[in-house]
Design a protein that fits this description.
The protein is α/β, with parallel strands linked by helices. The chain has a single domain, classed as NAD(P)-binding Rossmann-like Domain (Rossmann fold, 3-Layer(aba) Sandwich), CATH 3.40.50. The chain contains 9 helices and 13 strands. It has a 7-stranded parallel sheet with strand order 3-2-1-4-5-6-11, sandwiched between helices. Strands 7-10 form a two-stranded parallel sheet. The protein has a two-stranded parallel ribbon with strand order 8-13. The longest helix has 22 residues. The protein binds NADP nicotinamide-adenine-dinucleotide phosphate.
Length: 293
């Protein structure tokens, strides 16, 4: 990206958005926006599903070079009860942003999810595989993809990711480390497979897609895969936590309102070709993250 460009980053108070702000390339000024105040958030309280608010935001921002949209309704289980609200944030807001980005003539990167797939394919998902979401969250995120690609195909890039963790926000490795302080035994689901992905790895990839991406959809996850049980064991080992016994269990033992894909591994070849390298292996990225805490 050329020097002194300004880029809007939505969800800038969130787990991923906060890291996107911190990893802005040299010479790029990231303008963070979110509903709540947080470090680096310059535009507080803009509801992205509200067309008028979004167009005013673009006006205030002045000349911008692009948008990275990480804001979302991310409460996967609660979305089963609040699908309308989730659709407003994950669906409508993408249509609104696409309209504003198109009017401004700038590219936009929208962050998507592996939850658009049903996890039944038995192999890593390609970008063009048929989605079949199992949950309200997945349906609303898929709607957002489609609204944006329909409204602004030439300027929209979707980056689907999964199993995120990072320096800010609530996530699985953090939850496990917290529980390990309270309990000597933990049971963790061992029949769902995915690729744990550090926001430290993903955020720079989003900037690269904004600058150079030409395909409508990319998949972006750390290399390799594991189950939640595998991730819990690796987290304890990497953080050198001792004296906690972790036992594998099945999803049936931990029923949740939203169904999750059983085997949701993303084929990230397209992104690897774009960047000339894959995201780091998940175990390495986890250790880097834990070392940065
Ligand atoms: N976390 C994962 O494992 C995962 C996996 C796959 C894909 N993703 C996708 O990655 C992206 C980032 O996820 P994350 O985990 O970083 O999410 P997050 O921490 O929940 O951050 C999302 C941010 O968006 C804000 N937001 C919600 N509704 C909004 C609205 N109407 N207008 C403006 N901002 C709004 C939220 O504010 P409030 O907190 O105040 O609501 C929050 O600060 C999302 O698109 C998500 O779907 C995440």
């Amino acid at each position: 990206m050329s020097q002194n460009k300004r880029v809007l980053v939505t969800g800038a108070a969130g787990m991923l958005g906060s890291q996107v702000l911190l990893s802005a390339p040299d010479g790029v000024q990231a303008i963070g926006t979110d509903l709540v105040e947080a470090a680096g958030v310059q535009e507080v309280g803009v509801d992205l599903a509200d067309e008028r608010q979004v167009f005013e935001l673009f006006e205030r921002a002045g000349e911008i070079a692009g948008v990275i949209h990480t804001a979302a309704y991310t409460a996967v289980d609660l979305a089963e009860e609040q699908e309308e609200l989730a659709m407003r944030v994950n669906g409508t807001a993408c249509a609104v942003l696409a309209g504003a980005a198109k009017a401004a003539g700038v590219p936009q990167v929208l962050v998507g999810t592996d939850f658009v797939f049903d996890g039944e394919s038995g192999r890593a998902y390609l970008e063009d595989d048929e989605p079949n979401p199992l949950s309200a969250y997945g349906r609303t995120k898929l709607a957002g993809e489609r609204f944006a690609l329909e409204a602004y195909p030439e300027g929209t890039r979707i980056v689907r990711t999964q199993w995120l963790y990072g320096p800010r926000g609530k996530h699985f490795p953090g939850t496990m480390l917290g529980l390990a302080k309270e309990r000597k035994q933990l049971k963790v689901v061992d029949d769902q497979t995915g690729s744990p992905t550090s926001t430290l790895e993903l955020a720079p990839a989003l900037w690269d897609v904004l600058e150079r991406g030409e395909e409508p959809i990319y998949h972006a996850a750390c290399e390799g895969d594991c189950t939640w049980f595998g991730l819990a064991c690796e987290t304890m080992a990497a953080a050198e936590v001792q004296g906690v016994e972790i036992a594998p269990c099945s999803t049936d033992e931990f029923p949740r309102p939203a169904r999750r894909p059983v085997h949701s591994v993303l084929d990230c070849g397209r992104l690897t070709t774009l960047r000339g390298r894959a995201l780091a292996p998940w175990q390495d990225a986890l250790r880097t993250y834990l070392g940065s805490e």
